[in-house]
Each structure stands twice: as structure tokens, then as C-alpha cells.
Amino acid sequence: MVDTAKERPLSGYRVLDLTIARAGPTAVRLLADWGADVIRIEPPITSGSNNSLSGAHEGSDQQNLHRNKRGLVLDLKHPKGSKLFKQMVASADIVVENFRSDVKQRLGIEYKDLRRENRGIILASISGFGQTGPYQHRPGVDQIVQGSSGLMSVTGAPGGGPMRAGIAVSDTSAGMFLGQGILLALLHRMKTGDGQWVHTSLLEAMMSKIDFQGSRYTMDGEIAEQEGNFHPTLAPMGMYSAKDGFVNLAASSGKMWRNFCQTLDAHKLLENPLYASGRARFENRESLNREVNALCQKFTMAELVDKLNAVGVPCGPINKISEAFEDHQVQHLKMVKPAEHELLGKINLVRTPINLSLFPETEQFVRAGPGPGQHTVEILQEFGLDEQSVRELIASGVVQNNSIVPA
Known about the structure:
Radius of gyration: 26 Å
Oligomer: single chain
Strand content: 5-15%
Largest sheet: 7 strands, mixed
Order of helices and strands: EHEHEHEHHEHHEHHEEHHHHHEHHEEHHE
Structural class: alpha/beta
CATH topology of the largest domain: Rossmann fold
CATH superfamily of the largest domain: Crotonobetainyl-coa:carnitine coa-transferase, domain 1
């Protein structure tokens, strides 16, 4: 393990991570990647359970979500466990959770409870539909919110029925927004000494992510519909067939349209009055897309990418996931970074996309994702518990020590 956390921007901040699933862990991953001391707190493990909604702890999803954290098993329902957690809150900076409101109340981890222990504590919460309102108690997962936010109604081919996005976009978006909110709260605390409650939801994140499709409705009353692989307001912009596959290209501005036609020797297209302006091209987009598609089929993917980008017309291939990771630019950016796992050995994960000039990307992650309770003893000792107290807590089942010992 290479310990570079002390050199990162969030070094010195301590985070108690109570999150499950994907949205909350996405937020905490931002903090962990940038040097925060993240303690992942999980409930006691019973026979046959792994307390996870994203696969086994040694699986690729869990490892990618929880790298750079340490693991503690703690029973928050037990009076001694609750007391110990409050002791940890007193010297922590941030608590991140995604419990239902009634669970927070029952466990005594609402903001008012935590503030009594630590004026500067920041409680960061994430939910499916918001902390208040008629849907506040509904369970929310990514696909449910993709549907209720309107995203699925604009995804997919016209007439093909609603279609989910191929990634957990509402989960990861909510996690990104919560991470930003935590950083804002830290900046405020630097000025005032006060913590606060930061919260967002999958629904709020997606209503924001709908972006210009949303403002088309809020300002103009337009209800966006499915456009398949084509842009909903500009043409030509979308996916077209090449000799050997498919490309995305954008030639919607006057300059890009002219360069596109001239570069591919399509002077008849350029001279066609149906396509003389941006508005005309959009209004006649069905015939335009057919003609652009027929034109592109005369060239290979590589020819289109090289020729069009050279004249300022954005064009790129449609890659499989494997092809994307093997792409020269992706490899140059070093988006894959290793971590050393005690049982699995060297594993490759996907790095944070944020680049800071004063903090060059490290060669590997500080640590792989922890097993449940892997660091219980060392964490409790850091909070001032002596060896006898730790042994008693383990014996009572309030905490579990599951240190990994290589075979």
C-alpha cells in the first residue's frame, strides 16, 4: 500500500460513511480519493449476508465504489454501539448516510442529534425523492427515478417506448451533487465554525440533469420526445453509418455544415435550399439524416474521424466498453489505476476524473475497498479505546473484527 493520502487536498478530514447502494458511496468516493480519512461503517454480518446491494465486497463494483476507505463493523442499534458512534462523531467532520427519515430518527442520527456532539459536524444525506414532501417515504432506486423524472421518455428511438439509460445516471448524479454540497459546507464551516445538514435526492439530481430538455418545458411549454440517436434541436447531429461501423458527428452550425460538405465532396448537399440554414436543416432533418447517412456509408469510421475532425467537425466512433478503455486518448489520460488488495492482489479500478495541477495523479490507490470490519481494531484504538475495551466490544457483538489475513 502506498500512503499518499496525507498529500491530498482533503487530508485531515474524517468521514463516517454509513451509505449503502450507489448514490451515497459515489459522494464518499470523491472525498476518499482526495485524501479524507473515510471510515466505512457497516452493520454486523449475519450468516449468509453481505449487507450489500452492489455485489460481494471483493467484486469489481464494491471495490470501485469503496476504494481508499477503511472498514468498521458497528451495531448502531445496540446502546453501546450508538454511544460509540456518538463518540466518533465528536471528532469527525462529516457523516454521510442514505437512511429513510424514520430510520435516522430511530438510530438517533438526525442532524440535531449529531450537532449536540459536534457543532461543526456536517451531515450529508441522500434519498430517492427528498427529505420532505408526499414521496419522502418512498424507496427510490435508479431506474424508478429515471422513469419518474422524464428521462426515459426522451431516451430511445421514436415509437420504441421508454428506454432506460445504460448506466445508473440518477444514482451517480445524486452522488456527485452531494459531494459538491459537502465541499460547499466545508467552505462555509471554515468561515463560521458551523456545520450543517446537506441533502439531495435522486429525483432532484435528475430534474437538474434533464437540463435544456427541462427548460424547453418550463420556459416554452415544449414537451420533449424521443429522438433516438439524433439531437432533439439541431441537425445534422447524431449517429450515422460508416462502411465498417457507426460514428457520431455534429455538423449543425453554418461553418461546420459547410466544412462537412466540402470535405466529403458533397456539394449538392451544400447547395440544396432545404438545408440552407440551421432552422431549415432541423425542419428537414428526416431527409437530411437519410442523405448524410448515405454519404457517410462511402467512408470507413477512421476516414470520417480523421477527415472531419481535421476541419473542426466533431466526429467519433461508437465504441464498446472494451474499445473505450483501449482508446489511445483514454490510455493517455490513465483512467485506469491499480489498487493492492490483500486477497485479490493487484486490481484495476477507474480513477476520479478531476485533475488538480498541484496534486498530480498518484500511480495507485492508497488502498483497495475494505472488507467489513477489516480495520475495526485500529480504528477503535485511534478513537482512544484501550485493548480491553475493544475486546469487550467484540465479545458483545457491538463491533466485529474481520481483519484480512492472506492465505
